[in-house]
Amino acid sequence: MKHKTTPLTLLIMLSLVVGGFVFFSHTTSSARAQTQTRDYNLAAAPIEPGQFVVKYKLGKAPADLQAAISQEESNPTFLSRIKQSLGIKSSTQVEYSTIKALEDKYSLASATAMETYNSPTVAAMFDNTYIYTFSSTANPTALLADYNAMDAIEYIEPNYIYSAFKVPNDTEYGSMWGMKIINAEAAWEQSTGLATVKAAVVDTGVETTHSDLKANVLKSEGIGAGCTSGNDTGNHGSHVAGTIGAVGNNAKGVVGVNWTVSISGYAVLCAGGSGSIADIAAGINKAVADGNKVVNLSLGGPGDSTTLHNAIINAKRTGTTVAVAAGNCWNQPQSGKCPDNDPAKRGSSDYTYPAAYPEAITVAATTSTDESASFSNRGNSVDIAAPGYQIKSSWPPDTYNTISGTSMATPHVAGAIALLLSIDATLTPDQIQNALQCTAKDLGAAGWDTTFGHGRLDLKAAVDAVKAHTIPTCPVAGQPVTTPIPTSAGGTTPGATTPAPTAGAGVHPCPAEAAKGNYNCTMPIDDNDYKAWETEFKSGTTTLAPYFEYVRKALYQ
User: Fold this and answer.
1) What is the pLDDT of residue 519?
2) Known catalytic residue at 74
């Protein structure tokens, strides 16, 4: 017997099919949307209260859906008339109703379309993009989840607030290219320094009454012959001090790498900008005794001094990091400060002291285009480079001046040391050196080279490494990364035991001697050199070259 299909039966079947299709299509699209995940970082990222940027898929914006619904109602199809008679919403109506329900749920106050400025390329990216303002009390986590559950949404995100990197209002800051190129502005977002960090300028003294320095200067003490206290007898020290820590954001003059820091001057160069190694060593020793954890030495000469070297060794032993200038003899006229008796040595930081001492961080100078400054010494002792050409800073009695030299590059690094200590006061000199030179922007030949060392200072990268507790290491063939302390000061006393580097240290106390087979730095070359080398080779911190030299000497000496 055949069953007759009545019009009512047909309508019921059709409604089930259509209704099921609408329900199925809506629920599955929601399920697909809910698989989208994104970390909005709501806990940390600042946002405009209640504001979100919403982009709808093509044809899915509320206005588009509303227009489509009007079209359906004005020109209904047979199918839409059947659904309408049964009270069934079309998929377009369902999407529109869902959007309007969310707008009501979260109290939408306004919706503004993003301007496309009659640009086809902008329109291609930002058509159907709106700035929604909901109630400021709306729960952003729940709102984002609800909107992401709709298939009509291409994306939704909070209207995040971004800020300019911290830029000081100091009136001469616009001419301070050095701060910009080392990424100081981004670093200042993390720290602008602390008064608890003490930095020493061993130089011509510091002008304690300079209006851009005095808030950050503890004292200036006369140490050398003819040096007075409380002022700067040669201008040089005040210029250095300004780069390390001229007061920041005070609407005056220049700004230092540290806006806040405690600087002490130790006047040792008072004879026309010169001083004896005994006075300089005394200045370093007094700075260390006073608790300074940073020492800036923008000075040097051609004489290798055990007295000065021992003062620097002692500073490092006590946890003080010393930054020294590479020297200004490269392509410069002969002068008393350059080793002019040997042309091969002139212009080399390896024969300029204290630049050659491995316990200090030796700083070369760069220009505003990241080139080596014409005067900047080069050599195996160069660790890092920093801005040193046409640097503006404080100048006695209460003004400013622009000068050049590795003396000007060094306080950028000394200031960086102080800034790192403001973030983590427990850092050791070796950790600080690694944080600075192993994050530097590589210039010149790939990797370490004699012109730039590891590269030009990148203050933001160094700060990030310290804050993340991920300080890298970067041993090279030139001056090594870290320096073990000799058990005998200076490491040159006959018979003294100077340890080879331990695993991970990466620095040898006498790299030039080690390359000759004298691996443990004591004479004569004997089996003890081989034993010291073997230990380090097994730990992966040295090469075969010293061994080959040891064998050669054993065979032919």
Assistant:
1) 66
2) no
